[in-house]
Structures are given as C-alpha cells and as structure tokens.
C-alpha cells in the first residue's frame, strides 16, 4: 500500500512540474495571434490560427484537471491526515 501511495505522490509531483511549464508557456501560445491582430487590426482577424486557440484550450483543460486534483485528492489527504492526528492526540490524552 505504501508503494501505491508513493507512486501517486510522484505522479502528482510530475504533473505539477508539467503544469508549471504550461503556466509559463501557455500565454505565449496566443502571443503571435495577438501581435498580428494588434498590428493589422480587425482586417486580418479571420486569418487567426485555429491551432493557437486549440493549444490554448488544451492548456486550459490541463489547468482544470490540475485544480480538480488539488481540490479533491489533496484536500482529502489533508483531511485524512488531520483526522489521524486528532485520533493520536486523543489516544495520548486517555
């Protein structure tokens, strides 16, 4: 059971590194399109790249999954750890 928990923690740490990279790279995915739109105004707006917006969507989905992992999985682990700590304290008191 310990190995399973360790592998989950390693996976979460790996995913956090991926999300850090995506958080830095993500906004740059739309930069070429925004620069083109700024310099050529709305005349070339229909020529904006669909692939940039799909990349932006993909990054947004990753951020959503990252949030779910932190909200549910890590919050559950924290709650479980707190409950175990309370039980240990109560057993020491009695």
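Sequence proposed for the structure above (94 residues):
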């Amino acid at each position: 059971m310990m190995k399973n928990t360790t592998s989950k923690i390693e996976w979460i740490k790996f995913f956090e590194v991926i999300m850090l990279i995506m958080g830095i790279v993500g906004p740059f995915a739309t930069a070429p399109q925004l620069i083109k739109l700024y310099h050529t105004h709305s005349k070339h707006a229909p020529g904006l790249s669909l692939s940039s917006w799909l990349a932006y969507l993909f990054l947004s989905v990753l951020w959503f999954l990252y949030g779910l992992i932190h909200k549910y999985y890590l919050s559950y682990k924290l709650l479980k750890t707190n409950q175990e700590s309370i039980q240990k304290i109560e057993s020491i008191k009695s």
